[in-house]
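About this split. The held-out portion is used to measure sequence recovery: a designer receives only the structure tokens and must propose an amino acid at every position. Recovery is the fraction of positions where the proposal matches the reference. Here is one held-out target exactly as it appears in the evaluation file.
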């Protein structure tokens, strides 16, 4: 428990430290259009050296932290990857855009009814890299998307493993998103895991053996790790945690190699570098929950001129804040649908919100509101806190918990996570209870706090247009009539008075690409001066792209007024 008590003490101390100066964008030293690099890791909470963890060996990230502004109260909007990534990439809660169920592309594979589908956000909603691209940025993704609405071709200039920002035009600013998956839940299984546990185990085993071959360091001693009270303190649990720490060290080495490359290329001198993760640890009672263990993440922001280097911030940060912050750095006004704030220019909120819905084959729904001290969670379904979920059941800690549960070997607290329906309401004092194991809901001493947070949550559910209130079957029928993916209408063209080509699609909210052999090379953002014939196609998020059509500027009519 020492690590978590140290972390809480550190976070509280930050409330007394001066924050970084409020405005970044007004400084003369801030480039008008800086390069921006977002580095992410998967399934990892604050289990890092710079966050106070005494077991983690993360020298490269610790060095980056010493050069960065460090946010100690950053939280994702979900405790699982796809919904969280949907919110990050749009700046909108996943529950608002219909991307809340994990995961839409596999809905039906492990269920009695339903079929895979893509979420269809409101027509105005765009991924923020597409907005950067429309403003002249070169956008690169290496390589994970997983946004629930498909791999939309208009979001990225390059979207593949090993994609390179150096393909851009001379002088063109770039935004790059670089993902590291070695800390993912499925990478913490030993490579001899029983193949019969799940269909993906064979593939994971070979990948995990490859990861183990890179561990040219002394492995973590299981005796050194801290076991929280919601897990049994057995060797199997400690061994899995130790393996997780070893994977974290591998991730740190990978990030270190990337940072070395960036520094050698001069990116430390002209780029803003961000590091975060997609949600909390990929471990039971962490991932797929909205306890702090499932949503609390590291967040570093390094500026090329050293602005705020080494400072730590204690204000609440939500993942929906990243989009408006990055857009602002690029000189792009955030659309009104984005509800997040600019981290360095706007006042901090006194509460943030998170959500959980269906996870693979298990339908659930729960919502939460997090203040600086208090955390309130409400369950709307009758599943246990940790339900029977086939993929999660492969995890060694999960298998150990279920084995001991069958033998009567769990503590009442541990067993409660596996039995019966989760409590309808939970209230935690994160200052005195960092593990969030003492539920204060129903205690008359905290009735006023519970009532206040319950009201805040209800107001947010209504104001945000929470689509989790709609049964998934009805939601799919609404966005994919007859369970058939709609197709984007083809691109039409006309010429303006200056002879430039205007492109459009009858599908509301469609994005348009043009050029190249398939009409996807460039993003259409304004009338274009083209003389030779070219191909073009359109796509609305969640829809099939249109068929590519060829446009001959010499043969199109003038636009009607």
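Reference sequence for scoring:
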């Amino acid at each position: 428990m020492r690590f978590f008590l140290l972390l809480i003490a550190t976070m509280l101390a930050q409330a007394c430290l001066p924050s970084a100066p409020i405005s970044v964008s007004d400084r003369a030293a801030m480039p008008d259009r800086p390069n921006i690099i977002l580095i992410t890791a998967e399934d990892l909470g604050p289990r890092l050296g710079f966050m106070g963890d005494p077991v983690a060996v993360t020298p490269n990230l610790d060095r980056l932290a010493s050069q960065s502004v460090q946010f100690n109260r950053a939280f994702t909007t979900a405790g699982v990857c796809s919904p969280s990534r949907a919110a990050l990439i749009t700046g909108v809660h996943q529950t608002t855009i219909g991307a809340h169920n994990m995961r839409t592309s596999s809905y039906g594979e492990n269920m009695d009814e339903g079929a895979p589908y893509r979420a269809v956000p409101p027509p105005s909603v765009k991924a923020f890299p597409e907005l950067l691209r429309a403003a002249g940025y070169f956008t690169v993704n290496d390589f994970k998307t997983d946004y629930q609405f498909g791999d939309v071709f208009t979001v990225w200039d390059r979207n593949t493993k090993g994609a390179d920002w150096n393909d851009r035009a001379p002088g063109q600013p770039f935004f790059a998103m670089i993902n590291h998956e070695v800390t993912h839940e499925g990478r913490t299984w030993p490579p001899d895991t029983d193949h019969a546990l799940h269909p993906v185990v064979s593939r994971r085993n070979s990948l995990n053996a490859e990861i183990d071959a890179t561990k040219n360091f002394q492995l973590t001693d299981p005796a050194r790790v801290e076991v929280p009270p919601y897990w049994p303190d057995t060797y199997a649990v400690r061994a899995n945690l130790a393996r997780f720490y070893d994977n974290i060290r591998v991730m740190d080495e990978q990030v270190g190699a990337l940072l070395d490359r960036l520094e050698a290329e001069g990116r430390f001198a002209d780029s803003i570098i961000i590091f975060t993760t997609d949600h909390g640890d990929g471990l039971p009672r962490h991932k797929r929950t909205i306890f702090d263990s499932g949503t609390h993440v590291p967040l570093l922001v390094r500026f090329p001129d050293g602005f705020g280097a080494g400072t730590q911030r204690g204000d609440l940060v939500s993942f929906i804040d990243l989009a408006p912050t990055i857009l602002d750095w690029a000189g792009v006004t955030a659309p009104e649908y984005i509800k997040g704030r600019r981290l360095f220019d706007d006042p901090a909120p006194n509460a943030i919100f998170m959500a959980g819905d269906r996870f693979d084959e298990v339908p659930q729904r729960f919502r939460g509101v997090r203040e600086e001290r208090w955390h309130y969670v409400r369950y709307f379904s009758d599943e246990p806190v940790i339900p029977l979920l086939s993929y999660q059941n492969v995890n060694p800690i999960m298998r150990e918990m279920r084995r001991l549960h069958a033998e009567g070997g769990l503590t009442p607290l541990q067993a409660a996570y596996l039995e019966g329906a989760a409590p309808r309401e939970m209230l935690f004092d994160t200052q005195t209870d960092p593990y969030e194991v003492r539920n204060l809901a129903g205690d008359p001493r905290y009735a006023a706090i519970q009532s206040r947070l319950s009201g805040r949550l209800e107001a947010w559910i209504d104001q945000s247009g929470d689509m989790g209130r709609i049964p998934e079957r009805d939601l799919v029928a609404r966005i994919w009539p007859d369970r058939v993916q709609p197709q984007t209408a083809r691109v039409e063209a006309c010429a303006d008075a200056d002879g430039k080509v205007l492109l459009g699609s009858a599908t509301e909210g469609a994005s348009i690409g043009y050029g190249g052999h398939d009409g996807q090379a460039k993003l259409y953002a304004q009338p274009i001066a083209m003389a030779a014939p070219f191909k073009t196609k359109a796509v609305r998020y969640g829809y099939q792209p249109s068929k590519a059509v060829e446009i001959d500027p010499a043969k199109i009519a003038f636009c009607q007024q």
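Annotator remark: The radius of gyration is 24 Å.
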